[in-house]
């Protein structure tokens, strides 16, 4: 997992309340080889027209969205099934952070485990940011995980990032839960040795 400390980027706004994981990546693509990248499946069906061609009106298909590593999305983003492929598709497309009023619970945790920072912001703040981006598509947002805050453009100010301390530590170090556990191996080994010394019958 790629470490996350601070990311400054333009922002692509993808509207739609209750955007579920099947919209993020349709289920029929989940059998594809992840090694070849899931980015080509991101929002596959909703970013295309009836003929299967990319819809130039879809936010991520617009030239000003190129290179954006932060998405502004709407309430309850990532609801629906628990498929981790939805997060894979975002990560493979280079998305490092998501801003929304709320997220599906399982999706929120999957994002943290795969190097994406989901930031909850008040509805009014998200709406104000959407208006700002409409007026200035090149406006940037900074997600500063070290300082635990997101810095919005202009007078929209800074807002706290609230995530579990352990998940934050993993993200800052670029370690998943298993890799983080290995960093404690000296303490684990010492504990097991002491436990066996106090309870030798466990080794019988």
From TrEMBL:
- Aconitase A/isopropylmalate dehydratase small subunit swivel domain residues: 1-122
Q: In which pathway does it act?
A: Amino-acid biosynthesis; L-leucine biosynthesis; L-leucine from 3-methyl-2-oxobutanoate: step 2/4
The EC number(s) attached to this protein equal: 4.2.1.33
Question: Catalysed reaction(s)?
Answer: (2R,3S)-3-isopropylmalate = (2S)-2-isopropylmalate
> Which EC class heads this enzyme's classification?
lyase
- Asked if the Swiss-Prot or TrEMBL record annotates the protein with the keyword Protease, the reply is no
On the tree of life, the source organism's domain of life is: Bacteria
Arranged from A to Z, the UniProt key words for this protein are:
Amino-acid biosynthesis, Branched-chain amino acid biosynthesis, Leucine biosynthesis, Lyase
A Pfam family of the record is: Aconitase_C
Q: What NCBIfam families does this protein map onto? A: leuD (TIGR00171), PRK01641.1 (NF002458)
Annotated function: Catalyzes the isomerization between 2-isopropylmalate and 3-isopropylmalate, via the formation of 2-isopropylmaleate.
Whom does it interact with, and what assembly results? Heterodimer of LeuC and LeuD.
* Record family assignment: Belongs to the LeuD family. LeuD type 1 subfamily.
This one is known as 3-isopropylmalate dehydratase small subunit
Organism, as annotated: Paracoccus acridae
This protein's encoding gene: leuD
